[in-house]
Amino acid sequence: MAGENAAGPDRDERGGDDAAAADDGDRDGPDPRVRPGRTADADRIRELQSHLRQPSPDLLEYGLAVGAARVTVADGRVVGYLLPVDAPNRPGVHLAELVVAPGFRREGRARGLLRAAIADADGPVTLQAHPDNDAALALYDSLGFEVVERRPDAYADGDALVLRRR
Question: If you placed Cys at 127, which of 58, 95, 119, 155 could pair as Cys (CB 3.0 to 4.6 Å)?
Fold first, then answer.
């Protein structure tokens, strides 16, 4: 389920892209602002999904139904989310959607969401990013991700990079 987004540079992408790019915080250990998504969070998460290049409402609904989503919270309000998806027939997880609301970027929230997903993963973790998003790629690199594939024309505005962390 590697990402499929295509929008301008100010839009977030499946797999984290600009949401993560805006994240320059560095914390050790679990981020106390991150928790599992709840049914009550669904409307806010759907609003945040509008920041994606190519959102997948069906995938989000599935993720919410099975309790896969993680959220980051500020003053009791969900300000970002990450949607990991797994395949029952192979180990690991793909980080399909990651969004942090614009007013809450550069606070370490994407890093906190990513670290939570990595800690929960049983096997490799993958995501997809736009090759021009240097800040997101630097964040992913700092968390141990490396480019394993380039997907030509995955986005309307060009290629996508698939990154993997073991």
Answer: 95
Other Cβ atoms within 10 Å of 55 Cβ, number: 19
CA-based nearest residue to 148, from 118, 125, 123, 120: 125
Residue 91: pLDDT band (50, 70, 90) is confident
Residue 84 confidence class, pLDDT cut points 50, 70, 90? very high
Helix runs in the chain, H state only:
17-21, 42-49, 57-66, 109-120, 134-142
Q: Residue 73 pairs with which residues in a beta bridge?
A: 78
CA proximity to 19, closest of 75, 61, 82: 82
Q: Nearest to residue 69, comparing CAs of 100, 47, 42? A: 42
DSSP 85: E
> If we measure between CA atoms, which residue out of 161, 166, 101 comes closest to residue 128?
161
